[in-house]
Each structure stands twice: as C-alpha cells, then as structure tokens.
C-alpha cells in the first residue's frame, strides 16, 4: 500500500515572525509535486520545517506520514520513517568521506549495523550490496568511484554538491524526497545529470516535493502537480501548464488575485 504525506494547516515562526500561515498539501508515493513561488514566500521554510530544523518553531498544524504526526519526532526519526531533504546549500563535512557517510547513514536508517566481526560473512555481504548500490548511482551521475574517497562536500563545486545529494537519495531510497531548489547554481549539464538520477529513481515507491523558482528543472523532471506559494500559503494548484504560465507572466498576477 502506498504511503501518504499529509500537511495540514501547517504554521511556523522564524525568530517570532510568522512565515508559514496555513500550508495544506497531500503527497502520495509515486507523485511528484512542484512548489514554485517568489522569494520570501516560505518554500524553503516549508522544507526545513518538514525535516525538523530547530530554528523553525511550529505554531500549528500537523504533518502526517501514514497517520503518524512527524512533528512529534526528532529529525533522525523522521528520516527513519522515510523523509529525505536535499539541501539548497549542502554543508561541508571535513574528515568524513562520502563512502563512510553513506555507510553510516544506511546503517542508521535501515538498522543494518553488522552484528558479527569485520570480515564476517554477514558484514561482507552487506558491504558488497551497498557498494553495488553506490556504484550504480555513480554511473548515473557519470562519476568514478574516486568521488567516494573525497570528504563530504569539501572543495566540491556547486554542481558536485547537488549531484552528491542525488547520490545520497539514490542510496538511501526514501519514501518522500524534498528537493529544496536543487537546480540553483547548476549549469545545464549538471542539471541534466541530476534530473536523470531522479527520473531513474522515480516510481511508485518515491513521492517528491520539488521546490523551485523557475520551470527550468521541470523541463527535465516533469511534475504531476504544480503549486504556487505566496506569503506562506499555497494559493494555486494545477498541472504543468501552471508552471508554464508563471514562466510567461511571472508571479505578480497571482499576487494581485490573492491580495
């Protein structure tokens, strides 16, 4: 049975200023929802609030994953339930290789920490399976295995950081992925690489929220639904044609309509 993520009347303050003013959205596994909107509309605040960033104070509403309120859980438990956030600005983690980060994350989320000693059959089988998953994702990103020996995001270009987020998504296999302006700072080749990995992951077991200013990424990741966010609320919903209309007209006509 497909899982469902339900955002009900979500309200959030940042430094005592109300940013989210009653967000309602339902996303099912297998669906891709694009959220567009002008600067300051609350799109990134929504992403961080869903993931449980402590700076964002929830003042009302619920976020239900299969009926369980995620707002009552810390970020690591939300991740274990199947939530994943691809950051707009991924942070550098010196001293931690990409490979070690992925192994640690997989063990934490799946509860697959080997019980036997290093080199045991169980341990070796788990590591071999994980390595195959990583290699398959690297091939989609057109990277060789030397990438996993680099420290996480240290010295990475903007495009490499975003492609690294897609590598994590491919390996961790979340139920729901939130992509916070993944297209920002990407040239066209990097954007196509990111989209190719996402489209290979796309299917009945992945639901996604793609947050973006522009429809450029939506040319390569075609959404099932498009939502426009203004002043902390989703004010318009539709199909791909809504993104095209925004691209042609901008956001002022929507702001005028909703006051």
From TrEMBL:
Protein keywords: ATP-binding, Nucleotide-binding
Lineage top rank: taxon: Bacteria
Domain ABC transporter, residue spans: 5-256
Pfam family, one: ABC_tran
SUPFAM superfamilies, alphabetized: P-loop containing nucleoside triphosphate hydrolases (SSF52540)
InterPro entries tied to this protein: AAA+_ATPase, ABC_transporter-like_ATP-bd, FeS-cluster_ATPase_SufC, P-loop_NTPase
PANTHER family named in the record: ABC TRANSPORTER I FAMILY MEMBER 6, CHLOROPLASTIC (PTHR43204:SF1)
Family stated for the protein in its record: Belongs to the ABC transporter superfamily. Ycf16 family.
Protein name per UniProt: Fe-S cluster assembly ATPase SufC
Species this protein is from: Thermaerobacter composti
């Amino acid at each position: 049975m497909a899982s469902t993520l339900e955002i009900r009347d979500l309200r959030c303050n940042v430094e005592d200023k109300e940013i989210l003013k009653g967000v309602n959205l339902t996303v099912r596994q297998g669906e891709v929802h694009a959220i567009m909107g002008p600067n300051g509309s609350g799109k990134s605040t929504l992403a961080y609030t869903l993931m449980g960033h402590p700076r964002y104070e929830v003042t009302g509403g619920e976020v239900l994953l299969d009926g369980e309120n995620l707002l009552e859980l810390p970020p690591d438990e939300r991740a274990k339930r199947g939530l994943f956030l691809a950051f707009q600005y991924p942070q550098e983690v010196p001293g931690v290789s990409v490979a070690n980060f992925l192994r640690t994350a997989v063990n934490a989320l799946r509860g697959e920490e080997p019980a036997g000693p290093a080199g045991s059959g169980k341990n070796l089988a788990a590591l071999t399976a994980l390595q195959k998953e990583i290699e398959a994702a690297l091939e989609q990103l057109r990277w060789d295995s030397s990438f996993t020996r680099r420290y996480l995001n240290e010295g990475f270009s903007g495009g490499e950081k975003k492609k690294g987020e897609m590598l994590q998504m491919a390996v961790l296999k979340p139920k729901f992925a939130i992509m916070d302006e993944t297209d920002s700072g990407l040239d066209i080749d990097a954007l196509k690489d990111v989209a190719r990995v996402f489209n290979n992951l796309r299917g009945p077991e992945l639901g996604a929220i793609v947050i973006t200013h522009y429809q450029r990424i939506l040319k390569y990741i075609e959404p099932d639904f498009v939502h426009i966010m203004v002043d902390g609320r989703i004010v318009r919903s539709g199909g791909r044609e809504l993104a095209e209309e925004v691209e042609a007209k901008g956001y002022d006509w929507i702001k005028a309509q909703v006051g």
